[in-house]
Amino acid sequence: RGPAGPQPARRRPARPRPASPSPAPAAVAPAASGGPKRVVAVTACPTGVAHTFMAAAASAPEAQQRGWWVGGGARGAGG
């Protein structure tokens, strides 16, 4: 409370949003067609452990069947 009593809340003017989201830039060039592919698992887990292993267990058999390399790493509070 100020000396004149409670003041009404102030609102910030709304920011204009872009018409469409811009695509994220590719981190690496696409793999050459016909060659083995490399798949990197990125998981979002607070501890960075359980979902990494779950992703590996689900992805590895399919990647192996297709002749691809698959990998991941633990990143998080416990990883």
TrEMBL record:
<keyword id="KW-0808">Transferase</keyword>
<feature type="compositionally biased region" description="Gly residues">
    <location>
        <begin position="69"/>
        <end position="79"/>
    </location>
</feature>
<feature type="domain" description="Phosphotransferase system EIIB component type 2/3">
    <location>
        <begin position="40"/>
        <end position="67"/>
    </location>
</feature>
<feature type="region of interest" description="Disordered">
    <location>
        <begin position="59"/>
        <end position="79"/>
    </location>
</feature>
<dbReference type="InterPro" id="IPR036095">
    <property type="entry name" value="PTS_EIIB-like_sf"/>
</dbReference>
<feature type="compositionally biased region" description="Low complexity">
    <location>
        <begin position="25"/>
        <end position="36"/>
    </location>
</feature>
<feature type="compositionally biased region" description="Low complexity">
    <location>
        <begin position="59"/>
        <end position="68"/>
    </location>
</feature>
<dbReference type="GO" id="GO:0009401">
    <property type="term" value="P:phosphoenolpyruvate-dependent sugar phosphotransferase system"/>
</dbReference>
<protein>
    <recommendedName>
        <fullName>Phosphotransferase system EIIB component type 2/3 domain-containing protein</fullName>
    </recommendedName>
</protein>
<dbReference type="InterPro" id="IPR003501">
    <property type="entry name" value="PTS_EIIB_2/3"/>
</dbReference>
<feature type="region of interest" description="Disordered">
    <location>
        <begin position="1"/>
        <end position="36"/>
    </location>
</feature>
<keyword id="KW-0598">Phosphotransferase system</keyword>
<dbReference type="Pfam" id="PF02302">
    <property type="entry name" value="PTS_IIB"/>
</dbReference>
<dbReference type="GO" id="GO:0008982">
    <property type="term" value="F:protein-N(PI)-phosphohistidine-sugar phosphotransferase activity"/>
</dbReference>
